[in-house]
Amino acid sequence: MSFAESPRTPRLLAVDDTTDNLILLEAILEDEGYDIHCVTDGMSALWQVESQPPDLILLDVMMPGMDGYEVTRRIRQNPNLPFIPIVLITAHDESNLVEGLDLGADDFVRKPINPDELLARVRSLLRLKRSIDLQTQMAKRQEDFVMRLTHDLRTPLVAADRMLHLFQKETFCPISPDMQEAIAVMIRSNDSLLQMVNTLLEVYRYDAGYKTLTFSICDLRNIIQEVMGELQPIANEKKLRLVFEPNDHTSDASAKVRGDRLELRRVFTNLIGNALKFTAQGQVVVSLAEQQISSMEQTEEHIPSWVKVEVQDTGPGISPDDQRMIFERFRQGKGKRSGSGLGLYLSRRILEAHQGKISVVSEPGRGSVFSVQLPGVLPEAAQPSRAYHGRYY
Description:
The chain is α/β, with parallel strands linked by helices. The protein has helices at residues 19-31, 42-51, 68-76, 98-103, 115-168, 177-208, 220-237, 261-278, 320-325, 343-353, and strands spanning 11-15, 35-39, 56-60, 86-90, 107-110, 212-219, 241-246, 256-259, 283-292, 305-313, 357-362, 368-375, 386-389.
């Protein structure tokens, strides 16, 4: 809990291989009312930090085995830890502290220790930690609020959708052609709002680390054909050609990736739907091909190739300025039909969770090409489905 919610004595961790130095630190800090815990080596310090993160660490630089620099590096590289200020304690020149500060230490004090200087630095860094902790909690509460709000909004929107369709089918009473048209407009507007709410909910699930993905072997060829079949009526209504062009050299096996089928489907629904939405005339072409990975790109997982999907349209294109920020959160395009600015951001987050990539090449007046790359899988790599939980950073 934060200091604001439940005031408590700050807990400090002192790390030094010399017992006399620890006794001195303990005497100085306990007199000021701090709760101080002492350890004599780096491994014990890391265990304490992971099991019960302190509010501040006083860390001797020169210790046998694991020195203070290595302890600092490991703490800063642990994504599961909150921000913990680290004060290095050294008897050496300031130049020797550059490495520690670069690794993430926040301040330093020299031996022999000046009690007033030590206490001033501790108070300053504890104020910094409190400020950061409060900001983190506020951001978390904001995310929780939006998630709850968007989740609660779905219920009345779904109910309204069902009721409007009942009206449209004249379930309750006959309605005039004008009313039919009005109800159709209401249904489209309600669908757009429901889609926006669903997208916002998914974005916050990813950002908050609450999203669970179930991975299995997915055939991108089938996923794309399903999505195109669902979106074909939109293409027909706008008199656009919607074409699927799988590469002749792309076998069924090489079109397979490991991923969450529903989430990958969401990506291609968004990309193909956007292409149809912003294209007034011409066509939308979806291509599927296999890209071999060079020897320098080989990974420990021995990925044989990338599976590449391109969605090319003949729409108005995207300006260079918009291209640079189009995959960022709440970044809308400048077109009349630009949406909430979340669809492409969500697509990027989904693909990042799949170790994939997304990019765009576009020129105003000449259309756009959105490219998706996903790691392919070997035929013998098929394994049972598995779930993955956590943040995608």
